[in-house]
């Protein structure tokens, strides 16, 4: 089934009809206005034709019908990694600018790759800024001893003060490690001096080290301190024998007790859930969701998990609709997690 703005569709799980009002290409979703007037975002795989289909045939799934757009060159598929050597000593997370010479030998463009020659997997965010404006952004996962393309840089843009901002989170069995972030301000003179053979790519590139191996586990370097600073740091007043909780700042105590997940199953929120209608259940779940998000934003946490279960997907879609409208939310995803399966959405602020 082809979908465009104005197409009448049927929501497979809710068994309701509506009209597509907006295509959300990046999220793989579409906004649908239901016949009762509600407007919600829905994943494309949950849409089908409004006409009833025979029971022995599966419903036709929805497909994007992009409007008239300028022709954009599709990036080449990621080339297979054919390392000709064994990495004896890991360098860490690196950023490589791979020159693309033209037939006349001139280089007018560089492919940008993020390299990971460590033994850990990472989530990463990459931004390329020109004159302070973000022109390219990529969020993805990079496996151990692998590389991924993250963008392109034109030769003339070296004069536009290019800046690369890279954030990484190590993936562990218990979740993600602490956030690592580095900003690389690329100057032409420095750029052309950094010509090396890149690991994994096995060719000459302009190479920058972003994070050393296990950078998120290295203790911060201590700066030398004078006698006055040492005295202030180690001075201990007479102890006041009272509950430490009464002496902690309110926000610090809240942050220490904050749980980075909320379970929105109605049985976790109300004891009388069996007497409630579906509409009342959804209203209560969204009320608790809004309260939880306001607190998380106020405390400045990095990420949270919203446990909504699988079911028919109406709660999940309603949450996605709210997250899209929150400027404090950087990204969110409903992917498989070893702890929650597909029943939770991860929100990154």
From TrEMBL:
Region listing for Disordered, in residue ranges: 46-79
Listed InterPro entries: Smr_assoc-like_sf (IPR036781), Smr_dom (IPR002625), Smr_dom_sf (IPR036063)
Domain Smr: 290-349
Pfam families reported for this sequence: Smr (PF01713)
Compositionally biased intervals (Basic and acidic residues): 68-79
Protein name per UniProt: Smr domain-containing protein
